[in-house]
Amino acid sequence: MKKHNGLLALALVAGMIASAQTPTPLPARNFAQNSGHAPARSAVTEDEALQLAHKIEREANAGNPASLNHLIDPDLLVGRISEKSPILRDESFRRSFRDGVAESITNFGLQVVNNIKGGGYHLLRVYEYKGARHMLFRLHDGSAALNYHDFILEKVKDSVRASDCYIYVSDDYMSTTMSRLVNTMNAGNQANTSEDMKFLTGMIQLYQKKDYAGIKDYFEKADARMKDDKGLYLIYVLCCKKVDVGKYQEVLEHYITHFPDAASGYLMIIDLYYTKKEPEKGLVAVEKLDSLIGKDPFLDYYRGRCYDMQGKRVESIRCFEATYRLDPSFERNTIRLIVAYAANKENDKARTIIGEYKRSPVFAEENLDAVYKRFPDLK
Length: 379
What we know:
CATH class of the largest domain: Alpha Beta
Strand content: 5-15%
Distance between the termini: 61 Å
Number of domains: 3
Number of strands: 5
Shape: globular
Largest sheet: 5 strands, antiparallel
Number of helices: 20
Strand order of the largest sheet: 1-2-3-4-5
Radius of gyration: 22 Å
């Protein structure tokens, strides 16, 4: 199984941090229970979920990946994968596959911690959907690249573990992403591989070589049915971003139109519209994302950027203030708030935030020097 660990790792961490769910979370089906391989477990209470979520939040933001590394139960995850991958009904293959999964997911928390520097990992909410308890986290780095993780929780003996995780930037559960890879690996060993599997195998081989231009050309030659596959189209969008910026906006806007409930599209296009100086479109994308997530106050930061580009100082200040109250350690917003106050001739407010910023652990003198150069009266 070790030869497949690279693919397993790719499936598990792909899209964990956006450079970017459905309107309501997908139902939590007891796949592992039906497979006959699940450990004994019972329902997770709200208090148990909150206790675990706050522990994960504290540890991750302190640079400790331990709880996240241990959160996903490999047996539960493999149980869900097996419902979509018939090859896992073979006991010997299942055992070796399970070992590969267990090895890969031990770095889940480390991947998160390494990618939230200057940002954070924050609990949005704990909720119940169709009898299953969920934890929804927001994660972002110092540049405000944004993503969300939605974990399905189950009780394993005395522990609360996750059976799966919906990763918003890839718009899929881990189990679904991995089952496609398993099915592709299996199809490569079959004499009568379906055309779908041949196509997916080709995409994966090109991706492993980092041949993004090759993937773009390969996908563009596919038939219309393959182009209707959300997962494949998303890969195409990401490859266009790397090799053809003009084409990237075109295909990303098509993706959003074709898959209007895919949060991944809005996570990407908010930054694109900001870069292209199209704040009106950016605000529409932020509102759509907010409705899909079920409200996230952190999105005020992105609203503030759009309002600032429109010259709406009062509205931008309101948004940056709200984000500062939510997370004063997010340095990029802090600097924007200081600049917005100064531009609006509210120097006393700007100096108050400067004082708080100087006392914070994220303080960087060079960032403040840039502000003083623009607004020397703040010194």
